[in-house]
Amino acid sequence: MTERRDRSNELFAQLTALPADDPRRAQVRDELVSLHAGLAYAVARRFGRRGEHDEDVAQVAMLGLVKAVDRFDPSREVEFSTFATPTIRGEVRRYFRDSSWAVHVPRGVRELAVQVPAAAEELSARLHRSPRPSEIAAHLGVDTERVMDALDAAEAYSTVPLDSPVADGRPLSDSLGQHDAAFDRVDEREALRPLVAALPERERTILMLRFFEEMSQSQIAEQVGVSQMHVSRLLARTLTSLREGLAEAADPAVS
Amino acid sequence: MTAAQEWGPFELRVPARSSSIGVVRSLAATVATRLDLDLDHIEDVRLAVSEACSLLVPQASEDAQLTLVLTADAYTLTATLSVPTASPTALAPESFAWTVLHALTDSARSTSEGGRTTVRLTFTRAEEVAGADPG
């Protein structure tokens, strides 16, 4: 154990000393990864037994380990394993999140669903606007129809939680809205102000940019520094929370 | 599938409950995707239809159905959402929901007649970018 730690520290010291383009870096990195492979397997095992994914999970965990090696800053006084474990776990979690619809979606679509957002971002940067599915298809050299399926599949997964029921089993918005129509709009604006003010900084910025500056999601993504898909999700979530907040303000009994 | 092709009408009827909104929104987004709108516009369609549903569901009569009709011509995608209403109430045009709808659509208007409240949303198919080849 101590032996491994010493060797690990030694290798990280080497890695830090080597210039970024030194070919020897790859070798040091490889040794670090295999030295700590047990860590990745341990995390993978904890997530394992969820069906036929075990092998994939182990690979994803290894990928997380590689990222951890690349990001680790040995000058901070933290053990590598302490640093790496959450990184690996995060990677595995992301994998589960992104692949939990895998059961319903043919494998090809699933793979494409990973490539499409990357292609979309690349094209957005190049075109200075968001691309059409047909443009993404041309870029990836696949059939447009398949890109459309992939977009549908990605969304089918990511929008599910938005309308999910609250504690008593009814979707929250079912109990809301009755008051919307009668809701005086001046009151609404008053009620909205503290809700908007209470939003996290980034959500508030995105909301303002979208609805008051009328920027497109791609433009916002570029300005805020997150992906367009992420902007889309944050916007949807923010709108839902504002709507819920307004209804609560209209009828405190709902909460 | 050329951009100029006429599409629809696609019609969907669901129980006017908030649990249906996800389905309504998904159909609208799928049609927008298949019309080859750009990704921003697809997201706009999804959010706007969702928002329109949230306006209409509380207006609906008990056990009523919400209807979504999507049509497209060469220039425009139109989403028409309606519910039967027992006592039609004007949807406050300056509410936050309308601010959202106006930002997301090219036009958004609501009418209330013949016992139905209707929200009609139009989205331009942004012809100016058609034919742009990213390759």
What does this molecule look like?
Chain A has 13 helices and no strands. Chain A is mostly helical and 255 residues long. In chain A, helix 1 (2-17) runs antiparallel to helix 2, helix 3 (37-47) crosses helix 4 and helix 3 (37-47) packs across helix 5. Chain B has helices at residues 21-34, 39-56, 96-104; strands at residues 7-15, 65-72, 76-84, 107-113, 116-124. Chain B has a five-stranded antiparallel beta sheet with strand order 1-2-3-5-4, covered by helices on one side. Chain B starts with 6 loop residues before the first strand and ends in an 11-residue tail after the last strand.
Per-chain topology:
The complex is a heterodimer of chains A (255) and B (135).
Chain A: H1 2-17, H2 24-35, H3 37-47, H4 54-71, H5 80-99, H6 107-127, H7 133-140, H8 144-158, H9 172-175, H10 185-198, H11 201-211, H12 217-224, H13 228-250
Helix pairs in contact in A: 1-2, 3-4, 3-5, 4-5, 6-7, 6-8, 7-8, 10-13, 11-13, 12-13
Chain B: E1 7-15, H1 21-34, H2 39-56, E2 65-72, E3 76-84, H3 96-104, E4 107-113, E5 116-124
Antiparallel strand pairs in B: 1-2, 2-3, 3-5, 4-5
For this entry, give a set of tags.
A: mainly alpha, globular, B: 135 residues, alpha+beta, five-stranded antiparallel beta sheet, 3 helices
Strand content of chain B: 25-35%
Rounded mean pLDDT of chain B is: 84
Please give the share of residues in helix of chain B.
25-40%
* Spatial extent as radius of gyration of chain A: 23 Å
**Biggest beta sheet summary of chain A:** none
Q: Number of helical segments of chain B?
A: 3
Q: Note the beta-strand portion of chain A.
A: under 5%
Structural class of chain A: mainly alpha
* Widest beta sheet: strand line-up of chain B: 1-2-3-5-4
Oligomer: heterodimer
Amino- and carboxy-terminal Cα gap of chain A: 53 Å
Please outline the major beta sheet of chain B: 5 strands, antiparallel
| β-strand number of chain B | 5
Order of helices and strands of chain A: HHHHHHHHHHHHH
Number of helices of chain A: 13
